C-alpha cells in the first residue's frame, strides 16, 4: 500500500462496472477512499463492498452526470462525506453506433453530453477543491476513438476528440497547482459490454486477429495504469493521453 496515496479521496464516475470498477479497486488497494457516482445503485453497492474489503472507505452516489443540478449536488455530498477530493476519474460514457444520417439530434446530444459536457460539469464542481494543495489528479477516459475511428462512430469519435482537447487545455490551466490532467485511451478490453463478441468463438477469433498483441485487454491493466497516473511518480505527466490498446493505433 502506498503511503503517498493512503487517505486520499477519489471520485469515479461510471464506477459500478468495467473499467471504472477496475480503477476503483486498484486505488482502494493503495488506501484511497472512493466516491462512486453512477446510476446503478445495486452494482455500486457491490463495488463498495469490495472497496471496503480492501481497507478503504467507500460511498455511493446515484448521479446523472449530464444533469447540472445533479452534479452540483454530487459535489456537495462528496465534500460533506470526505471533506475534500484529490482525484477525479471521468469514466462515465456511452456510445451509439449508426450512420450519421440516422442520428436524431437527441441521440447526438446524449452522446456528447455524457462523454464531454459531464466532464466539464464534474471538473467545475471538484477543481476548486483540488487547488492549493500541491497535488491533484484528473483522469479522463479519452478512448482510441479520439485518435482513429470506424464507420458509425461519428458521435462517439467527436465526443472523445473533444475530450482530448479539453484534457490538454485544462492541464495547462492547472499545471501551476500541481494538478495533472491525463487521458487514458483504451482499446478493446474484456468488459461486460463486449461479452456478446467474446462469447462468439468465430467472431472473437476474427476480432483478435486485428489486435497486434492478439488478445483482449484486461481491466486490471487499466486499473494499474490509473494507479500509476495518480501516484507521486507521475507528477510530470500532464496534458496528454496514454494509449493502452495492444498496438491498435500503431497499425
Please characterize this protein's 3D structure.
The chain has 251 residues and is α/β, with parallel strands linked by helices. The protein is 44% helix and 16% strand. It has helices spanning 18-28, 41-53, 68-82, 105-130, 154-174, 195-198, 201-208, 219-230, and strands at residues 9-13, 33-38, 58-62, 87-90, 136-141, 179-186, 240-244. The chain has a 7-stranded parallel sheet with strand order 3-2-1-4-5-6-7, sandwiched between helices. β5, α5 and β6 form a beta-alpha-beta unit. α1 runs parallel beside α2, α3 (68-82) packs parallel to α4 and α4 runs parallel beside α5 (154-174). It starts with 8 loop residues before the first strand and ends in a 7-residue tail after the last strand.
Task: Please provide a brief summary of the model.
This protein has about 250 residues and is of the alpha/beta class.
Question: What characteristics describe this protein?
Answer:
Rossmann fold, 8 helices, 7-stranded parallel β-sheet, alpha/beta, 251 residues
Could you state the CATH homologous superfamily?
Answer: NAD(P)-binding Rossmann-like Domain
For the sheet with most strands, the description reads:
7 strands, parallel
Domain count: the total is 1
Mean pLDDT: 96
Q: What proportion strand? A: 15-25%
Q: How would you classify the quaternary structure?
A: single chain
Count the strands?
Answer: 7
The CATH architecture category equals 3-Layer(aba) Sandwich
- The strand order across the widest sheet is 3-2-1-4-5-6-7
Structural class: alpha/beta
| Helical content band | 40-55%
